[in-house]
Design goal:
Layout lengths: L1 H17 L1 H10 L4 H13 L5 H34 L7 H14 L3 H4 L6 H4 L1 H6 L4 H26 L6 H35 L1
Helix pairs in contact: 1-2, 2-3, 2-4, 3-4, 3-9, 4-9
Length: 202
C-alpha cells in the first residue's frame, strides 16, 4: 500500500513539474485514475500555478488522446491484441465482451454514455475501433463526455485545495447522479430513434 501511495505521490509531483503538459500526459496514459490527476490539477489552480480553464482544456485533451489510442488498438489490433496485451493496460477480456455487447446493442451513442461508467469508459473505445466507427463521430462523443467530467473534477480539486486527496468522498454526491443521468440520455436517444423509424414505416 505504501509503495502505491509513493508511486502516486511521485507521479503527481511529475504532473506539478510539467504543469499543463503533466495533466495532458497524465490523462493520456492514466497510470493513476483520471479523477486524481484532474483534482490535482484543480489543486494546482488553487495554488495559482495554472488557470482553471487551462486545466480543463488540458484534461479534456488528455482524455481524448487516451481514447484515440484505445480506439486505434481496437481498429488495428482487434481482439487478438487485447487478449495478448490487455493485462498490461488493465483491460480484461470480460470487460471487452461487455463493452462489445453494449456497442452492438445500443450503437455509437454508447461511446458517450459509457464515459461515465467506471472501467467501461476506457474499454468501450476498443469495440468502437473494431467496428470502424467514424473517427469524427467517435471524437465528438468522447469530447462531449470529457468536458463536463474534466470541469467537475478540476473544480472539486480547486475547491478542496490542500485536501484534494479527499476527492473520492467529495465527488460522491455528484458522481452518484452521473450514471443515472447518462442512462436517461441513452433511453431518450433510443426512444427518438424508435419513433423516427416508426414514423418512416407509417
Amino acid at each position: 500500500m505504501n509503495s502505491i501511495h509513493d508511486l502516486t505521490a511521485q507521479l503527481l509531483h511529475w504532473v506539478e513539474t510539467l504543469g499543463y503538459w503533466g495533466i495532458v500526459i497524465g490523462l493520456a496514459i492514466e497510470v493513476i485514475p483520471s479523477e486524481i490527476v484532474l483534482s490535482y490539477g484543480g489543486y494546482l489552480v488553487s495554488q495559482g500555478h495554472i488557470t482553471f480553464v487551462g486545466a480543463v482544456i488540458c484534461g479534456t485533451l488528455g482524455a481524448v488522446l487516451q481514447q484515440w489510442l484505445l480506439y486505434a488498438i481496437g481498429r488495428f489490433g482487434g481482439r487478438p491484441f487485447v487478449l495478448k496485451y490487455g493485462k498490461f493496460l488493465h483491460i480484461k477480456q470480460k470487460h471487452v465482451d461487455i463493452a462489445e455487447n453494449w456497442f452492438d446493442k445500443y450503437g455509437p451513442v454508447i461511446v458517450f454514455t459509457a464515459r461515465f461508467v467506471p472501467v467501461m469508459r476506457q474499454v468501450i473505445s476498443i469495440p468502437a475501433g473494431m467496428a470502424r466507427m467514424s473517427l469524427t463521430v467517435y471524437t465528438l462523443l468522447t469530447l462531449l463526455a470529457s468536458i463536463p467530467w474534466s470541469i467537475l473534477f478540476v473544480w472539486l480539486g480547486w475547491k478542496l485545495g490542500d485536501n484534494y486527496d479527499q476527492i473520492a468522498h467529495e465527488a460522491a454526491p455528484y458522481t452518484k447522479w452521473i450514471i443515472p443521468a447518462a442512462i436517461a440520455l441513452l433511453v431518450i436517444y433510443l426512444l427518438v430513434i424508435f419513433l423516427r423509424r416508426r414514423n418512416r414505416k407509417s
